[in-house]
Design a protein that fits this description.
mainly alpha; 7 helices; elongated
């Protein structure tokens, strides 16, 4: 009886095959994700879907406009803005707490070895009054600049709104003509004549003023 000998050949597997248990594979995947989160993104995040090129251009144009307005400010206006920013910070509050607190405590003779110099606090009241006058002036200067910038932005918003209203009116006229050509009837056909008319801003303002109370006119 002939005996046939079979040679043992190792099984061949594709390169990169992982023979680990499923649990260890999941643990390694979790560790990889955790390490990636800790490292942070290796590439810049994608742009938001609503941030179009036109919107980016508008943002950059407004930023350049703001920088131009700040560069045109006079030295006095810049000083006033700097003082206003500083007086509106917590550092200014802390300095006043220390200064006025020491002044009051020292003149109440609660600090041994420190002679009193304003027992009636008249000098302190005068200093506070003068400081309030100058600070209110600086704040008013900054507010006037902000009011001018706000007026410019309001005019820009008004012009854009009027342009959008005019374009919408033309679109409504075009759509009405297409609907009439296709013999399409809608429930707003009676309002089309009014919709196709441009709105006069001066007429709207006159109507608002006429409807306002007498004390607000």
């Amino acid at each position: 009886m002939n005996t046939i000998a079979f040679r043992h050949r190792p099984l061949s597997h594709p390169r990169g095959t992982d023979f680990r248990r499923p649990g260890s594979v999941r643990m390694d995947h979790h560790r990889t994700q955790t390490a990636a989160i800790r490292r942070g993104p290796t590439s810049p995040p994608p742009h938001p879907p609503g941030l179009s090129s036109v919107l980016e251009r508008n943002i950059q144009a407004l930023q350049r406009r703001r920088e131009q307005e700040e560069s045109k400010a006079s030295a006095q206006e810049r000083i006033a803005d700097g003082i206003t920013r500083f007086t509106g910070s917590m550092t200014f509050v802390y300095l006043h707490l220390v200064f006025f607190g020491f002044w009051i405590v020292a003149n109440l003779r609660w600090v041994p070895g420190v002679p009193t110099w304003d027992e009636s606090f008249v000098v302190l009241a005068m200093m506070a009054s003068v400081e309030a006058i100058f600070l209110s002036t600086f704040v008013l200067i900054s507010q006037n600049r902000m009011a001018k910038a706000a007026d410019k932005r309001a005019d820009l918003d008004l012009q854009i709104s009027l342009l959008a209203e005019h374009e919408i009116t033309k679109l409504a006229t075009l759509v009405a003509a297409i609907a009439e050509r296709l013999d399409v009837r809608t429930a707003v056909d009676q309002e089309l004549d009014e919709i196709k008319q441009d709105v006069a801003p001066e007429a709207v303002l006159d109507e608002i003023e006429s409807e306002a109370p007498p004390d607000q006119r």
